[in-house]
């Protein structure tokens, strides 16, 4: 395991608590490289962190004559980057992609697991700008810990205190443990809806936004996997990473072909896509005119009724479990399905686990506005023949991370 952590220290009074964090990490043989902002050095001397970490402290974009491009070298030096304390200013800068000093430039160049431990005055922490930044960062796969509630250095009482260094150290340790959990593994992920055309203008589809699948792709990349993300039409930007192959598809049949091809080398398939179960039997090459539609229509109980024939789409995960059983795919391929249900969530999901030949099914209640389609958060029950594990409500990225941890632990153990 790569046991190195980059530790960013910014200009909060809580900067002194970062000393305890360094001590906790170093005690466990975790190498710590500290990066400080200029404001942080007004509050704490770099010499303290140099002594505690046993490493020179990085302060300036141009302060290491041995490193041709200091921030890139730093960004690539560890799989986990913790910023503690992280001021409201730095939270907001990171959300906007500002890179105007060594710490923020390194964060922008960093592709591993970024963990922020905020510390700010209550008003600054609760300000709409800061809270929106936190949500935006979480949606992009950054872990932002919740600030503690209590007495602050300015005398105010409320949320904004730096989380306990032991909590931050636990999070860093967990991230380190998982940072290579999927190294050398090929993970295939389906995401978003599929779109089934009637004609070049009209289609049938569903409300899936692809957020869960894209969060899974980012989490798998951060755990070291090579990822194929096969996505239906969504409005999300694909993660940019040398280990990611992105395949854009429209219909269920296109998705099926892309998945079957990618699955040949897959170790894990995560089928998060909401595949349309049916497609129009006939797709017109040209836009159907109203008069042509009316030829298909009949008047029933005072309403014009148009009958469109739909045919069933292939069930992609069933195709995969059959191919695996036939020996066409890796025998130990782990197949994970998702069941978006509006009622009888657990029993419907359990039924799908069995009928589709899956190893895990992730059940969620899409009738709930707070965790359903398009929501930033999710709350799921992971069902496998070995038992059920709930994942509490959290950002879709956090849920993705916990789900991958669970799958890797369960499949490594067996
Ligand atoms: O639509 P349904 O609830 O049956 O979806 C459950 C799981 O099956 C999901 O993981 C979904 O991606 C997958 N599925 C599929 N092909 C379909 C329909 C669903 O792979 N045609």
Q: Strand-residue fraction?
A: 25-35%
Largest sheet: 8 strands, mixed
Structural class: alpha/beta
Note the gap between the termini: 21 Å
Low-confidence stretches: none
Give the total of beta strands: 21
Helical fraction: 25-40%
- Apparent shape: elongated
How large is the count of helical segments?
15
Largest sheet: spatial strand order:
12-11-8-13-18-19-20-21
Estimated radius of gyration: 25 Å
Average pLDDT, all residues = 93
Ligands, deduplicated: cytidine-5'-monophosphate
Structural commentary:
With 414 residues, the chain is an alpha/beta fold. Helices cover 36% and strands 26% of the residues. It contains 15 helices and 21 strands. The chain has helices at 17-27, 38-43, 46-53, 70-75, 88-96, 102-109, 122-126, 128-139, 165-178, 211-222, 252-263, 290-295, 316-325, 345-355, 396-413; strands at residues 4-9, 31-36, 80-86, 113-118, 143-144, 148-151, 157-161, 186-191, 196-197, 203-204, 226-231, 244-248, 268-271, 278-280, 297-300, 303-306, 310-312, 334-341, 360-365, 377-384, 387-395. Strands 12-11-8-13-18-19-20-21 form an eight-stranded mixed beta sheet, with helices on both faces. A five-stranded parallel beta sheet has the order 2-1-3-4-5, sandwiched between helices. Strand 20 (377-384) and strand 21 (387-395) form a beta hairpin. Helix 1 (17-27) packs across helix 9 (165-178) and helix 10 packs across helix 15. It is elongated and about 80 Å long. The protein starts with a strand and ends with a helix. Cytidine-5'-monophosphate is lined by residues 190, 252, 271, 273, 275, 277, 313, 315-317, 337-339, 352, 356.
